[in-house]
Design a protein that fits this description.
Number of strands: 0
Mean pLDDT: 84
Structural class: mainly alpha
CATH topology: Fumarate Reductase Cytochrome B subunit
Distance between the termini: 47 Å
CATH class: Mainly Alpha
Oligomer: single chain
Helix content: 55-70%
CATH architecture: Up-down Bundle
Strand content: under 5%
Low-confidence stretches: 162-172
């Protein structure tokens, strides 16, 4: 569930960040309307709001997959090593991007690198790592979404009408 919310939130941040970046540093031949000013205000508001929403979503997602960090054997082959390395890049950039973005909202820059350029570059790394992660997990995602709920043998079937399965004669 959290992944379904995280993906769109990161995508919203990425697209609104691209808009902001290209307004400030347009590519040759790129022209954006500068009026009305509320368009930029809206996109920045959406960018910051989605970025703030990422924090609890990301922490919840990391908590839900925390146990996989300790699976044994830690590496099952070269492909598993690559996948775990890419997940490491994804987690690192997914934690760093909102953190430096949040610090930027306070206009405090305790780091030696330029914020805008670094935030922009990390966004591309994050989106690339997210795309690879979704691509690797796509068979599992498709399998999950295409299966129908099957009755579990350890649970009785759900009674839909409320009276089925009850004793018909309760006076006896």
């Amino acid at each position: 569930m959290l992944g379904r919310l995280l993906g769109p939130a990161f995508l919203i941040c990425f697209l609104t960040g691209l808009y902001s970046h290209f307004l400030q540093d347009p590519l040759p031949g790129m022209v954006f309307p500068t009026r009305p000013a509320w368009i930029y205000q809206l996109t920045q508001g959406v960018h910051v709001t989605a970025g703030l929403a990422l924090v609890p979503l990301l922490l919840g997602k990391l908590w839900s997959v925390y146990g996989r960090l300790f699976e044994w054997p830690p590496l099952r082959g070269v492909l598993h090593l690559i996948e775990r390395g890419l997940v490491g890049v994804l987690v690192a950039t997914a934690l760093l991007e909102p953190a430096i973005g949040l610090i930027n909202t306070y206009q405090w820059y305790p780091w030696p690198f330029p914020f805008r350029q670094t935030h922009f570059a990390l966004a591309w790394v994050l989106v690339g790592a997210l795309a690879v992660h979704v691509g690797v997990k796509l068979p599992i995602i498709v399998q999950h979404w295409s299966r129908r709920e099957r009755p579990r043998p350890d649970r009785p079937p759900i009674e839909r009408h409320g009276t089925e399965g009850r004793d018909a004669d309760i006076s006896a």
